[in-house]
Amino acid sequence: MTIYRAPIQDTLFVLNDVLGFQRYSNLPGFSDATPDVLEAILAEGAKLAENVMHPLNRVGDMEGCVRHDDGSVTTPKGFKDAYDQYREGGWMGLAAPAEFGGQGLPYAVHTAVSEYMISANMALMMYPGLTQGAIAAIVTHGTDEQKATWLPRLIGGAWTGTMNLTEPHCGTDLGLLRTKAAPNGDGTYRISGQKIFISAGEHDMSDNIVHLVLARAEGAPEGVKGISLFIVPKFKLDASGNPGERNTLSCGSIEEKMGIHGNSTCVMNYDEAEGTLLGELNGGLKAMFTMMNEARLGVGLQGLSVSEIAYQNAVSYARDRLQGRSLSGAKAPDKKADPIIVHPDIRRSLMTMKAFNEAGRALALWTAIKSDVAHRSGDDKDRQAADDYTGLMTPVVKGVLTDKGFDHAVMAQQVFGGHGYIEEHGMSQFVRDARIAMIYEGANGIQALDLVGRKLAQNGGRAVQAFFKEVGEFCEENRADEKMAPFTKSLKKGLNDLQAATMWLVQNAMAKPDNAGAASTDYMHLFGLVALGYMWAQMAKSAQAKLADGANGGSPFYDTKLVTARFFMERVMPETATRLARISSGADTLMALPAEAF
Ligand SMILES: Cc1cc2nc3c(=O)[nH]c(=O)nc-3n(C[C@H](O)[C@H](O)[C@H](O)COP(=O)(O)OP(=O)(O)OC[C@H]3O[C@@H](n4cnc5c(N)ncnc54)[C@H](O)[C@@H]3O)c2cc1C
C-alpha cells in the first residue's frame, strides 16, 4: 500500500507568498478565494484525495476496466462512488462559469486541488479531466443553445466528456483523418468512422457521455484545413433535454495497456451517429486547440503529481530501510545497519525529486494564474501578456513536467531497489502510469517542436522576449543582495545559456529547418530549467523574507526551502550548459546516416 499526503503547506506558500495570489483579487472569482477559503478548499480537496481516491489507486490498477459483450464498460470497484463524491462536492465546476452552474473560482485553485487528486489516483481523475477539456471547448466555441444544452450537466458532473481525435492511421498528423460528417439538412450531421485510444470513451460513471469528435465534412478540403469539431452524445437528448434514444456509436474494444488501467481507453465506432457542429465549419483545429491547451496543462500536472506521490513513498521507504553504514560513521548504532536515507546517492535522488516537485508546482500554479488573467482580466494589455505567457509555457509545462515525472517515478522506484520492481509496493504502477503522460496530448517531441517552431517566433518573439526580460530583471534587481547571490548567479547563467540557444536558433534554423528539429527537445528542457530556476529564485526570496519576519516559528519549513533552492542551483541548473552545447552542435550528425544504416 502506498502513502500520500497532500502538500497543502507548500501550495499555500507558493500561492500566497511567492506568486502573490491575493494581488489578483480584482479579477472575477479571485475575491471569493480569500486566504481562509483557499485553505479550506485545499483541505477539503486533500481529504477526498487522501481518503477516497488514493485507496482506489491500486484497485484500479489491478482490476482495470471491463468491456461487456453489449459494448458497455464497467470501471473498477469504488470508482463510481468516488466519482459521485467528486461530483457531489462540486469539484467539476470549481472554476467553471457561474452562469452554467460552476463556482467561477480561479483556474489556479482548480489546478492546486487537481494536483492532489491526480497524485492520489491519476486514472480516476482522467474522467473529469477530459470533461474539463470538453467544457472549455463548448464555453469558447459553443452557440448559446449548445452552452445551455450541454454545459450545466457537464459542469455538474452528471455527464462526462471526451476528446476524439486519433484514428488508426492518424495520430500526430491530424490532416490525415478520415472520419466523415454528412449533413442531415436540419443542422445536424451523421458522423461515421473509427477513433482509437479514446480515454473515458465508455464507462458506467455518468448518465451521458458527450463526445467531441473531429471529422471531415462532405466536400471539405484535404488536410487540417478541412476538419471540423462535432458534439456527438452517447444518448441523444429528448424534448426536455434529458438522455433519450441511444446514438449509433459504440465502444468496439478497450485497449490492453501498460498503465492507467482504471481509465477505459476505447476504440470508438461511429456509425452515422447524430452530431452537431461545434465552432466553425472547417475550423475544427482551432476549436480543438482550446481543448488541447487546457488538456496539455492538465497532462503536465499529471507528470508533477506522479512525481510527488512517488517521491513521498521513496522518502518513507528510505527512512525505514536498513542497509549499510553511513560513510561518515554509523547514524543508527543501536541497529544492525543505517537507514538508506543516510547515503549520499539516495539523497541525490530524493533531493532531485523534491527540488523538481516544489518548483514544478510553482510553475504549474504560476501558469494557471496567467491563464486566469488571460481569460478574466478587463485590461487588454494584461490579457495579451498573460495569453502570450500561457501559449509559450504550455508546451514547456506539458513536455518538461511529464518527461521529469516519468524520470522521477523511475528514480523513486530505484530507491526501493528490487522491492520497487515487484508490484507489492506500488512503485511499478507509478512508473507505468507516468509513462503515458509523455505520449498523449501531443507526444513530447511535438511539444518541443511547438515551442521551437511556433511559439518562439509568434508575434515577432514577443512572448519569449517578455520572459527573458522578466527573469533578467529579477536577477538584476536582486544582484546587490548577497543572500540572493547563490540563486541569482546560477539563474543568470542559465538565462544566458537560454538566450544563446535562442540566438543560435534564429541564426541557424531558418536556412536549415532540421537544425530546429534537432534542437527542439534540448531547447524545451533548457527552457524548463530556466523557468524552474526562476521559480526557485523567487521561492528563496520569499523564504528569506519570511525568515527575516521571524515567521519560522521553530519550523524548518523556510530553511528547508533555502537548502532545496541551493541544491537546485548547484546540481540541476548546470545542465543548461550541456543542453546549449547539444543545441549548437546542429543537425549534422543526427541526419548524416541514411535510413538503412540504422
Ligand atoms: C492511453 C492513451 C490514451 C489516449 N487518449 C486519447 C484521447 O482521449 N483522445 C485522442 O484523440 N487520442 C488519445 N490518445 C492518442 C494519443 O494522443 C496519440 O497516441 C498521440 O497523439 C501520438 O499519436 P500516435 O500514437 O499515432 O503516434 P505518431 O503520430 O505515429 O508518432 C510516433 C512518434 O513520431 C513522432 N512524430 C510524429 N510526427 C512527427 C513530426 N512531424 N516531427 C517529429 N516527430 C514526429 C511522435 O512524437 C512520436 O514519438 C491516447 C493514447 C493513449 C496510448
Automatic annotation (TrEMBL):
Question: Ranges for the Acyl-CoA oxidase/dehydrogenase middle domain?
Answer: 163-271
Q: Which Pfam families match?
A: Acyl-CoA_dh_1 (PF00441), Acyl-CoA_dh_C (PF12806), Acyl-CoA_dh_M (PF02770), Acyl-CoA_dh_N (PF02771)
Quote the protein name from its UniProt record: Acyl-CoA dehydrogenase
Q: What residue stretches are annotated with the Acyl-CoA dehydrogenase/oxidase N-terminal domain?
A: 80-157
The species this protein belongs to is Mesorhizobium humile
| Cofactor(s) needed for function | FAD
Keyword annotations: FAD, Flavoprotein, Oxidoreductase
Give the similarity note. Answer: Belongs to the acyl-CoA dehydrogenase family.
Task: Give every Acyl-CoA dehydrogenase/oxidase C-terminal domain span.
Answer: 282-451
Q: Which ranges carry the Acetyl-CoA dehydrogenase-like C-terminal domain? A: 467-594
The keyword Transport appears for this protein: no
Does the record's keyword annotation contain Flavoprotein? Answer: yes
